[in-house]
């Protein structure tokens, strides 16, 4: 038994370094043992050390820690988790600088049973991709201008590192895939742990260098396209860049695709300064899906028939939301940004600007799985402020599980297309 496990370990490690790529089932996500519950005891010299999900150093999902921005500057990967512990763009509750550490703590349990995602029929940790936790980008808490530059530089350095696995061939035609990026290169994916939402401005500046203006799927209870005069009053040019205005700036800078059907907000339910906030949001290129639409989408709204008729079952509830998002972004390369406040504070209270009336954790996870097949080039999860969490780690667990869905969707779809 012990021999079998250590052989599996050796084969796994060997295969990982042999550039096997997609379809290979043998990546080892855990440094020491195949599954934590199989931890070996010290004294067994075939295993480095005993480790289990509640002990040892905490990385996202117990993935290997690679100092991607430090001594392991040349190490290649396919998907990297990286923290951006920045929260000095927050309007209400500060504390998201502890988000990366909190999300990692909430993610410890993800591989307890091995990490197979039942509805998506994939185990991202054994999909042949090399997935690592790069630690955090160094971010100063004293100077927002400098911090935003640090985040862009850190993200860019990861994004432009050659990926570990080749793109492989199309699963249907067998034709070799070519990159979908604008610079023609195959880039790894970066999943950023926020941090407040301001971090998405430097991230989109980084994404632009590889993909050009990008489509965005944004889950949030807020618009985040507010004009600086409306959100924060803009007493200085630096104050004008904050967690309620970064999409306004991203649009102004041409980082997100503009036009009628390119970017999509989901879970919106904020109050406004007035209806003009929605006009401004339209001008920033976004389509909105309000949180409450989950109850009504696809249902006949003729007077008196409000709840009597529903259309096809693929057009109501979470399916209706998924359909609407997919129609908006199509098969374009897309950046995914998730504010934990899209989930109702009953399930995820520890956040910068909580809004009641949101989606459940189950609903958001279902909607994210509905993005299966989209070309998600990178993603983030932001606004987790662990100091406001329950002792049961409700919010950080929700954040980790949401990212597990994102990771699973990414693992299923390579960032390539058949040349035509
Ligand atoms: C992709 O197809 C080529 C032939 O076009 C083949 O040589 C190669 O082994 C295939 N790669 C994978 C990962 O299947
Ligand atoms: C985006 O497009 C809309 C409508 O086409 C336009 O009104 C708006 O000015 C554009 N925004 C930017 C930043 O180009
Ligand atoms: Mn936000």
TrEMBL record:
Signal peptide residue numbers: 1-18
Entry's Gene Ontology molecular function annotations: agmatinase activity; metal ion binding
InterPro entries hit by this protein: Ureohydrolase, Ureohydrolase_dom_sf, Ureohydrolase_Mn_BS
Pfam families (UniProt xref): Arginase (PF00491)
Record-level GO BP terms: putrescine biosynthetic process from arginine, via agmatine
PROSITE patterns assigned to the protein according to its UniProt record, in alphabetical order: ARGINASE_1, ARGINASE_2
The organism's place on the tree of life at top rank: Eukaryota
Record-linked CDD domains: Agmatinase_PAH (cd11592)
Gene3D superfamilies listed in its UniProt record: Ureohydrolase domain
Keywords: Hydrolase, Metal-binding, Signal
Family according to the record: Belongs to the arginase family.
Name the UniProt record assigns to this protein: Agmatinase
Species this chain originates from: Antrodiella citrinella
